[in-house]
Amino acid sequence: MTREHNRRHDERRPSARARGYNHEWRKARLDYLAMNPHCRECSKAGVTRLATVVDHIIPHRSDKNLFWHRANWQPLCAPCHNSIKQRQERNL
User: Fold this and answer.
1) In terms of DSSP H, where are the helices of 13-75?
2) What CA–CA distance (Å, rounded) separates 67 from 61?
């Protein structure tokens, strides 16, 4: 994707709050990371790195049930989320 394409996408995208990332999500995210502190992708490679992102395995696309379904969550570090996961989603 080009920067221009990304800029246009971001302009059309609802705000994080509108997508469900509110106070309730921040609390649930902190609880989940406390119980699942290590990045799942790094762990697959034998590396121990703290997770900072709760990722939706299947993109929820504003489906509130999928958004809140904890079996659809995984702990990732920011580098894995911003590279591996984003690359996977582009290929969907």
Assistant:
1) 23-35, 40-44, 64-68
2) 8
pLDDT band at 55 (very low <50, low <70, confident <90, very high): very high
Rounded average pLDDT over 8-27: 71
Radius of gyration of the chain (CA): 14
Question: Distance between CA 68 and CA 11 in Å, rounded?
Answer: 25
Task: Residue 49: count other Cβ atoms within 10 Å of its Cβ.
Answer: 17
Tell how far CA 92 is from the center of its chain. Answer: 15
Decide: 49 and 38 in contact? Cβ < 8 Å. Answer: yes
63: tokens are 């489906």
* Nearest C-alpha neighbor of 73 from the set 89, 45, 48, 53: 53
Distances from the Cα of 65 to the Cα of 11, 19, 80, 85, 91, angstroms: 26, 13, 25, 21, 24
